[in-house]
Design goal:
heterodimer; A: alpha/beta; Rossmann fold; Alpha-Beta Plaits; 2 domains; 6-stranded mixed β-sheet; 10 helices; 14 strands; 36% helix; B: alpha/beta; abc type-2 transporter like fold; 18 helices; 66% helix; elongated
Chain lengths: 322, 428
Amino acid sequence: MNFAVEIDHVVKKFTQHVAVRDLSLRIPPGTVYGLLGPNGAGKTTTIRMVLDIIAPDSGQIRVLGAANNAPGVIDRVGYLPEERGLYRRMTVRRVLHFLAALKRVPSAAATQRINDWLERLQLVTQERDWGDARVEELSRGMQQKVQFIGALVHEPQMVILDEPFSALDPINAQALKDIILELKRAGRTIVFSTHLMESAERLCDAVCIIAAGAKLVDGTLAEVRRAHGLRQVALSLDGDEGAREGVQRVLHDASLVQRVDDSNQVLELDLAPAADPQLLLRRLIDAGAVVQRFELVQPSLHRVFVDRVSAAQLEHAEATHA
Amino acid sequence: MHKLWIVIRREFQERVRSRWFIVSTILVPLLMGLVIVVPIVLAARAVPSNDVARITIIDVSGTGLGKSVAFALDGGITGDTSLTRVTAVPVAELAAAESSATREVLAKREKGYLVLGPALWPKPAVRYAGSNASSPIDMNRLQRTVRDQLIATRLREAGMDPKQVESLTGLDVQMHTERLTARGRGGSGEVSTIIAFFVAFVLYITIFFYGQIVLRGVMEEKQTRVAETVVSSVRPDTLLFGKILGVGGVAGLQLLISGVATAVLVMERGPLLARLHVPMPAFEMPHVAPATALLLVVYFLLGYVVYAALFAAIGSMVSSEQDAQQVQLPIALLLVLTATFIQPVILAPEGRMADVLSILPFSSPIIMPLRLSLVSVSAWRVVVSLAVLLGGAWLAVWLAARVYRTGLLMYGKRPSLRELVRWVRASG
């Protein structure tokens, strides 16, 4: 299988710190891929290296089946940087024509596509054609739309979006989500970085969690959850106060339950390793609990992320001290 | 190459389309025109010197015109006839008479001498040479007097037919004037100094101004973060070169427009001044050899590249206006320092200082064109200076490219000198 992106043992050091340490990952084509990590994890540096904006100190990167600095490869990739901005004094159409021309889109085709996109994102309405306005006359939300168009106008095989949902208003976030899913249906690869687990969980086919420049886990969403090894039970109870004490004793039995997260309506229980959920259920009923809901659930991406990243940070801190 | 072209085209088109470019392109030739025309108009309104009449008239026309001109110059019947000396000589003795008159002028006993004839009709041969030849007021007075007296003479001969009066008053006297100095004839010395100064000053202003535009352009791309989008399509080097070349194209276009407009203005100054009822001042534009003109263009281009590259590097290093002001100071100082040497080099265009300054790549783009428009510079000096400048331009671009590709995506604190060295050394 030809991967959309293959990163092999990539290292990038800056003067003060190591941004990426021995990172390897594979992004399958036609998927929505999430690059997850806390701030400063090395997501942007990785993305910049994939796009050949900066070169790795060592290691190899292949994009769409070729070395990422091979001629023409980067023209088949679209990019929406985290910090967004455009030439303020240019008109919207001229900016988009410029960005299209840089990706070698012929002028006539560019004109057509730009008009289609402007209409689709409501930048051309019956009252006003914003395409002929200067970028600085546009609201922030409109400028973001223009930036989406700029990243997509050359119909790239792969789109890389760096923190696309940060600083987006809900309307634009919805529009971007629609665009991402549409691209996926058209067989394109979408890679985006985020530290917002909720949007990653809803959109991604596969993810990679990195922290402090190193990969912690990667794979499809299901694989990542399974690999986490954590089994959780969502529990809702009803019943009188008298039963509470017995129930609490069961819930705090370390051979069954590792940790309880009480979110009022639902108790989220982390099962102890090797604990049998059937036994837990029986013990609860024996203790007089009225069980409304007892469901074996997989850990949320948020949970996986928090667990993995805090463990890695602890390890990193210890290593640094030693 | 294709992408470089796209970047150049954007830089060029966006700037040429801007209101600022259109205004300044119209304004600059207009200002030049004012600079050329206004002093002449003002001078023409001034009072003529009262000793215009203190001249020798060499009359070779054999018509007695000299006597009547002298009579009129001295103020008619009530005037002081001792002011103007008239010598009527045959054409064969003209040379001798002129050289004795020249001696009088150089001894400052006379202002100048006027030669009338030999031919007076239909094209009167009238010449004047004197220390006040560059004063349009004096020349105008002389010219008018000669014209009036010539018409009067013709009218006397013709017997006052009104129709003839009408046609005769249309007579145009073209007086050829020449500045007479101890160094010899020909007024080009002072004019070429002015032109050399002008060339150096325009180069200085243009390089500084467009260097600043490159700096602002890079800063804008960095501050708006559009740079990050663009470098995902082109290499940072391409973006840098494209910016330098695109802005350079704008500078070239503006210089071309201003240059052509000024040249037209200078060449057509006669009719223009005539329309303002001001006589044409007496100076000849020095001849500029095509090779010299080409050299000026080459020096401008290379000088622009040196400074534009350095200013671009600074634009990529800083994230705020205050930082930009501080960090660009050393580069701006090099340019300002060069400008302060313009005056000394004009005074000693062949001295040691001029030699050194026209080899250093920071000053040669301004000092060498200055010397070239003043004196003839030996070929080997030009070759050495050009070679050093070419090397300097290459080095500046190389350094700038290395600083630029790191600096463009670094935000926040500006780099220390040590960090800067590391950026330049980094290979990626």
